[in-house]
Write a structure and sequence with these properties.
The chain is mostly helical. The chain is about 75% helix and about 5% strand. The chain has one domain.
Length: about 300
Amino acid sequence: MTAYAALGALEQGLAYGIMAIGVFISFRILDFPDLTVDGSLPLGAAVSAVAITSGVNPYLSLILAIVAGSMAGWVTAILNTKFKILHLLASILTMIALYSINIRIMGGPNIALIGAPSVFDPVIGLGIPAHLASLVVFAVFAVAVVILVIWFLRTEFGQAMLATGDNPQMITSLGVNTHFIIIAGVGLSNGLVALSGALIAQNQGAADVGMGIGTIIAGLASVIVGETLFGTASVARSIIAALLGSVVYRLAIAFALGFEWGGFSFSPSDLNLITALLVVGAMSAPHLKKRLLAR
């Protein structure tokens, strides 16, 4: 793996790490299987791209993307809590609807941002090369998200969210409205995913309706790899592990795609296979380690 490929994988790991934290909130904290993220990531990209091309400040477009992603999450959670639709089915319905909504927002399947202002311009203006500016911006946003989420989960509302995912019967008996907690939590999760999509679109110079395909798989892989390598001793450690797991996951993908042995090499079409192997390895590693220690 070349240094350029490693740098690109690190950038992607940090950018998609924000998405992985969003997936962690829904799957691990709320115990809410949510496939909406496959639609909310391109939703954030679409909203940000349209806003920028309409003259909106790139940083303000990120806020609009977060709001749009949160609204998508609210729809999924409301379908589940108020209309009693199974959470998995509710998220699939929202994801399917978002495909058409994203095309409607962009006025087509994609929209270009080449030459348009972006959140990277101020950093480039400081004299930092473009390929390093994106790494700096992604790192700043990723660290900020980690700090804010950890702080939020230590608040009274955040503790109620943790309790809702862990023991909904108990927290309901204490008078907490678990429906509101779930709606807010799934909204927060998809808001972070949309933020990730907006940053990626500005970095790539385009938003595309298909850029969210496989998002949930990558997010779960990042969470599982992070938990396996860095542990889950506390909520704060688990959130940091999700971010670092995304970086490790992207580095592993870059290494696998650059791997050659005896004329054999992986191609981009093998990405799903590589992801499946990584997840299987990450999930089976603790069990294999336990068996080896027992022997």
